[in-house]
């Protein structure tokens, strides 16, 4: 067991989300930054998609009631094990009674804790990913007990040669494809999309990121159609919304761009005031 | 009948197929027939097929290098003789209490349309609605067939909280909120029926192509049905439709 002493701003259990239920209106959900979750799990030798703890902006405080091994990847929230700072992307042995906590956010926005063997949680529709009205709780709260099996190992080899490219966390380049309604944009609008920097507004969460700068928009809404994580919608007021993992399955705003899947990971590490730039792939 | 379809790559793993931009039952039937034909082929690389009013989205497990092969395969299926869809449509009878206690926006709709509250309610439950698809929220049915006199723009400022089971009108459509949610539609009643159950497989009783009819009930009947639904013993009245 792992006890949640403090939950942090928005902490949840996530895997790679729900497949095959979108036609019932169920969001995909799952880790916002897949690359970080894969890295955290792979370092421990876990399957890439086993459940991890996702923390947003501020970290949780977690007390381990088992001996096991963990890794922390993604945003740098200054992790500490029993008040001693620990490195990201490195296997750490934790003993019963140890406390993992976090301090200042130094880079990125979402950090992941992986545990040897993965975290156990109730599977609903093929996934443990927490989401309102699908799982019992949508976030972890103070006092919650997270199930993790004790490790039989006493020692795990650190692989010194593992070099990881973490440049995506600070990258502002978002790679995109044309969306289904891209061709309805005027040349001027298309030009603005790719020449401007866009700032992340204060409206962003696991459902989507709204951008601050607007485009002159004369497009009519479309008849409600299908959207998915990474779809960029243009609202009647000219605002752009990039949908992320918890987004609805359908929407009525023109879909002007679609993010390359890897770029959703870049966006997941952004917060209010930071800027992004769209780069067209083809 | 065949429509002039557009096949568009959508991201790295999906193909969006578009029908003419209209809400029409013959389009829905064609989408469902095409979806059924694809499903019968049992193509292992496909994760899921999703539909909306005039589109079908096909998502593959892995990233497609070049969508040409997939699109050609889909076109061949569309233009092959259509298979008979053996899944039958069902008409679901959904009890709704239109009392003022639930129908908090009836007064506003009455002022907007000039119709009496009773007239609004009658026009709402006299229609037979077609289920086009599920979206917006888990278990939210997009229904076609609203009486022309009941068409009213959405609220300019959405309500922060609309109760589970709320039956509402907005943007030329009607629907039932399967769970508590913010929303911009006008609420005219409430149903004790659950439109989304995590424990059930599938989680929704209705599917695209089915029909919905609302049955007016009293507040007393509402409470009785609600108790039965809670106990898990309420059976929704339904009948199989033959075209």
Q: How would you describe the overall organization of this protein?
A:
The complex is a heterodimer of chains A (282) and B (243). With 282 residues, chain A is mostly beta strands. Chain A folds into two domains: 166 residues, no CATH class; 110 residues, Cyclophilin-like (Cyclophilin, Beta Barrel). Chain A is 10% helix and 33% strand. In chain A, strand 6 and strand 7 form a beta hairpin. The longest helix of chain A is centred in the N-terminal third of the chain and has 11 residues. Chain B has two domains: 74 residues, Gyrase A, domain 2; 155 residues, Cyclophilin (Beta Barrel), CATH 2.40.100.10. Chain B contains five helices and 14 strands. In chain B, the strands form four sheets. Chain B has a five-stranded mixed beta sheet. A four-stranded antiparallel beta sheet of chain B has the order 1-2-4-3, with helices on one face. A three-stranded antiparallel beta sheet of chain B has the order 10-9-12. Chain B starts with 5 loop residues before the first strand and ends with a strand. The mean pLDDT of chain B is 93.
